[in-house]
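Q: How do we represent a protein-ligand complex in a form that can be generated token by token?
A: Start from the inputs.
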Amino acid sequence: RALLRRLWKGDASARMLHPRLQKAMGAYLRANKHGVRFRGRRAAGRSRTELLCALQGRVQVRTLDGTEPPFSALGWRALVPPVPLSRLFPRGLRTCAVVTSAGAILNSSLGEEIDSHDAVLRFNSAPTRGYEKDVGNKTTLRIINSQILTNPSYHFMDSALYKDVILVAWDPAPYSANLNLWYKKPDYNLFTPYVQRRQRNPNQPFYILHPKFIWQLWDIIQENTKEKIQPNPPSSGFIGILLMMNLCGEVHVYEYVPSVRQTDLCHYHEPYHDAACTLGAYHPLLYEKLLVQRLNVGAQGDLHRKGKVVLPGLQAVRC
Ligand code: C5P
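Then emit the structure tokens for the protein with cytidine-5'-monophosphate bound:
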């Protein structure tokens, strides 16, 4: 509870986490699996406006477009969707909802509010069926990690969850963002199922995020955090929030910074409990959330009761 109050204020520390999570964080720091070398400068004291301007100047949504090796030689220019993700909504989206998969969204009755947005972003295998009252039933985009494409238990090619939506996939690449290295040794081989789905469903907008975009987000989190953050990619949640800040006039994020319903239930759709899902072990999730809370322009009451953070779209920010 003390940690929750500090999160709401935007000033928590990893030292407040359960020792088990702190230990896991330390192990990830030592392993540095993705070869992270932070070369940026710390700028921890930025105001909301300064933060927004830094984001606007630096965050560029990038997806694989087939123009760089090895993808250029593999015919990916003709394989990727003809319209880039950043131009899918030429007239822009007014307000957007980002719905995390946290267990805390159960019993929220947020479904109607979520569906009232112009676009709704969901994550991985999070369902709406059976949970409409709390999470709504509209899905415009879905961000999926590479395990969704490769682990047969998700039935990526057949499940209705991945049909009739814009799909955005990602996989942890080396921090160097060397595409040749990544192609040879992805975390999970998402390239083969990507090609297969593009060929079978050429009309479905389906993109793979460029590793430069992912690590740019990581750099920004580290830059604005006093502590040393885990040298691993940000969570799908953070990636999705920044993507929507680029596409929408205003972004409403539900149960990312937890409400009073905070729980160790990892996902609203699975009976699995682990505090790491909300506070992070692999992902620098605690730091992501502190940064997002610092950007919040919504009411404090909405944060406590709904777990809702309101963020301005980056197009309209005046710097
Ligand atoms: O677990 P998964 O990555 O599919 O969940 C989607 C996103 O929702 C996460 O990347 C994380 O940002 C957020 N999440 C959370 N708290 C949870 C579960 C998920 O903040 N308990």
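The pocket of cytidine-5'-monophosphate is lined by residues 100-103, 123-124, 235-238, 256, 266-267, 277-278 (CB under 6 Å). DSSP finds 14 helices and seven strands in the chain.
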